[in-house]
Design brief:
Blueprint lengths: L4 H18 L7 H21 L4 H15 L5 H15 L9 H14 L5
Helix pairs in contact: 1-2, 2-3, 2-4, 2-5, 3-4, 3-5
């Protein structure tokens, strides 16, 4: 069953403030955090269904950069938990993951991580 993009967006936004509190994200970084969570969700879908090599490594790097920006204690553990939580929610394609969207996300992640893509 495919979930419409708007439903996914509503789901991500509904869970992100709670996740932002759980992960102790300062108020001014909450929207960035939601963007990271949405990107992570799509990256997990791309890894599972489109088989996009390297996307989860780039996502991890991006999340670690964010973790350092918001000064999380033990950023490695928090990023690991975020990625595990996101993977646990992947139970079927959502319809947003296409070869183009996955390659775009990978390119954007590489760019934001300071790599040539």
């Amino acid at each position: 069953m495919k979930i419409p993009a708007t439903a996914l967006l509503a789901l991500v936004i509904a869970t992100s403030p709670a996740a932002a509190q759980e992960f102790k994200v300062p108020k001014q970084y909450e929207s960035q955090f939601m963007g990271q969570v949405m990107s992570l969700s799509l990256a997990q879908q791309c890894a599972a269904y489109i088989k996009t090599p390297g996307i989860l490594d780039e996502m991890r790097t991006s999340l670690l950069k964010f973790a350092h920006k918001v000064k999380w204690q033990d950023p490695q553990a928090k990023v690991k938990k975020l990625m595990a939580d996101s993977k646990a929610k992947v139970n079927g394609p959502i319809g947003l993951e296409t070869p183009a969207s996955c390659s775009d996300l990978l390119r954007d992640l590489k760019k934001s991580n300071g790599k040539k893509g």
